[in-house]
Amino acid sequence: MLEKIGTNAGHIWTVLENGEASLKAVKKATKLTEKDLNMALGWLAREGKIDLYDVEGEAFVRLA
């Protein structure tokens, strides 16, 4: 399971190398399930690799 989370985190990282994105856009670009997306985002957040923030009710993420 940890290997899968790490791989998914890598997919998210690749998307975010192009700049910040909404969580909806990241999910669409990576084709991850909600569960897999959230676990990978948690991994990246715990390591301090990403910043999560809210703009007018929509969640966004960017590389830290």
How does this model look, in words?
The protein is of the alpha+beta class and 64 residues long. It is built from 3 helices and 3 strands. It has helices at 2-16, 23-30, 34-46, and strands at residues 21-22, 50-55, 58-63. A hairpin with a 2-residue loop joins β2 and β3 (58-63). The longest helix is centred in the first third of the chain and has 15 residues, at 2-16.
How many structural domains?
1
Helix segment tally: 3
Question: What is the C-alpha radius of gyration, as a whole number of Å?
Answer: 11 Å
DSSP strand tally: 3
CATH architecture: Orthogonal Bundle
List keywords for this structure.
single chain; 64 residues; alpha+beta; Arc Repressor Mutant, subunit A; 3-stranded antiparallel beta sheet; 3 helices
Task: Give the secondary structure arrangement, pairings included.
Elements lengths: L1 H15 L4 E2 H8 L3 H13 L3 E6 L2 E6 L1
Antiparallel strand pairs: 1-3, 2-3
Describe the structure concisely for a colleague.
This protein has helices at 2-16, 23-30, 34-46, and strands at 21-22, 50-55, 58-63. The protein has 64 residues and is an alpha+beta fold.
